[in-house]
Hints:
Layout: H1 10-27, E1 39-42, E2 45-47, H2 49-72, H3 80-102, H4 108-128
Antiparallel strand pairs: 1-2
Amino acid sequence: MSSDGGGAPRGQVASATLLIVVGVLVLFVPAGDEGRVLVPISEGHGLSAVDAVGAALLTFGGTWLEVLVVRRLPYLALPPRALFALGLLAGLGVGLLVASVFTGFFWWWAVGAGALGIAILVLVPLTARR
Length: 130
């Protein structure tokens, strides 16, 4: 990345996105093929070794992508209200995803993933632009 913070190379955005996609695909492995639960989280949810690998890939890729987006924010030329709305949407999405794991909001993960996905679909292409 350049020292002035003005550019987020497309290769870095693509690599981070690839890590996220691979992490999500690993998390989609059926529960019967994952092995035993190492850490029970709530009823119907637990962390297996396969889940830990998927979560690690997703966390690393997501954090890398977030750093790229945040470094590029001054250059995106988005109005303050748009940035606030995207931040609110992303925060709501992450909150619903976490709540669906630890509570009885099982199907709310889809709403949270959709909200977070919209924010990502707006910010990532802008970040990858030169």
